[in-house]
# Entry
Amino acid sequence: MTEEKKNNLLFGKQNYMIMLAGIALLMLGFVIMMSDKEQYGFGFMGITLGPIVLMTGFIVEFFAIFHKSK
# Structure
């Protein structure tokens, strides 16, 4: 057998870094929605800002999965 080092990871290092950034955005979105002071989260942060940050996190995760490593 040759002594070449095989990479058994499904994604590359850059993909995992992008995924971590997406997970951080998802967590931030949920924290923003929880920190809304209006009753039942019906304020700007719970209805508008939090979901926008969450959608951005999901888009980043989608990009990380389909991004081709070099």
Remarks:
- The mean pLDDT is 89.
- Residues 44-66 form the longest helix (23 residues).
- The chain has one domain: 13-66.
